[in-house]
Amino acid sequence: xxxxxxxxxxxxxxxxxxxxxxxxxxxxxxxxxxxxxxxxxxxxxxxxxxxxxxxxxxxxxxxxxxxxxxxxxxxxxxxxxxxxxxxxxxxxxxxxxxxxxxxxxxxxxxxxxxxxxxxxxxxxxxxxxxxxxxxxxxxxxxxxxxxxxxxxxxxxxxxxxxxxxxxxxxxxxxxxxxxxxxxxxxxxxxxxxxxxxxxxxxxxxxxxxxxxxxxxxxxxxxxxxxxxxxxxxxxxxxxxxxxxxxxxxxxxxxxxxxxxxxxxxxxxxxxxxxxxxxxxxxxxxxxxxxxxxxxxxxxxxxxxxxxxxxxxxxxxxxxxxxxxxxxxxxxxxxxxxxxxxxxxxx
Length: 346
What we know:
This protein is elongated. α9 (about 265-275) runs parallel beside α10. The protein contains twelve helices and 14 strands. α3 (about 65-75) links the parallel β3 and β4 (about 80-85). The protein has helices spanning about 15-25, 40-50, 65-75, 85-100, 105-110, 115-130, 170-175, 200-210, 265-275, 295-300, 320-325, 335-345, and strands spanning about 5-10, 30-35, 50-55, 80-85, 105, 160-165, 190, 215, 225-230, 235-240, 245-250, 280-285, 305-310, 330-335. By secondary structure, it is an alpha/beta fold.
């Protein structure tokens, strides 16, 4: 059995011990070193050559964001950010994902001793293994991007574009969402697996990068063309049709307690497919597991179109693979080619 060496970076001795103990509870991980700040992290990455780094966001001397940037310049490797559950922590964590971090976890989820948190700790270990089998993300320019006229929207019957993503998703989304032109007349709904409190900063961030308006979806909000909606974390987001024929978001915390993710891509897709039928385009991007597979099956039952991200560009080729192997994908494309494929169908 291959062992993966991990460098644990945190300015808290308690947190270093807790993360190290969790990692070494799995025989596939060994902690090859610890670092108390970003300066030590950069030095030890070069000297110890770990397979993966867990990186605290807030540290003295050199914080996790700056350390990540240095590491990605001199010795790129998978970096997992460990974040506090605060508004500022969310903002900095999303910035880290733009700079090349492959995933992030909340510290609280790794420390508490409840059954729910035990499940999250196991998910942490599984996602680390998935990342180690995957690929490093490539940074996308964090600026508004104009689209060449030859790939601007073409007439079609698509009335909803739905995008589902998980591990590696924010980086992948940045290679798609900013390219939609300001006169794009189809609503876009994005379900990205994230802890509660992170999707609003994600929507705010993309709103500064995109030519379309980007909003976190709210209960009762009308689904309008030319807007990108981010499904809120901690809730399930469905699309429902009112008596007057207007389609709105039904966002609820309760219900479907068996669902592993909030938002759950399968739940959102299953509500949208009967409403849009053959006028729906579903895209499944990088992520671990199989969320989205059942929903895409329903999209195909209603004669909608399904695209998935190709293994070559996925950080974790899990969700797209599940859809592709189930026979629900109409096409499989690397992330840099996905936008053109969307535009060819809309």
